[in-house]
Amino acid sequence: xxxxxxxxxxxxxxxxxASSNDSSSCRFHPSFFVCxxxxxxxxxxxxxxxxxxxxxxxxxxxxxxxxxxxxxxTSFHVSYDDD
Length: 83
Known about the structure:
Layout: E1 7-8, E2 15-16, E3 26-28, E4 33-35, E5 57-59, E6 73-75
Antiparallel strand pairs: 1-2, 3-6, 4-5
């Protein structure tokens, strides 16, 4: 029996095989980590000493302020080889 080819997901960077890929395999943020005011303007942000007072860093999709935060969306893995 032929071994399945492992691929690397473009979104979460994890390896996977076609048989292990389902609609909740990949967890990612569909938007970018940005540095700007939050839309609600009412949230407190932990600013670094060199940050301007208006800076807020967060994922635009869900508002998570940690750049390493677990993705807020799940879907199938997508490979660099896929069209």
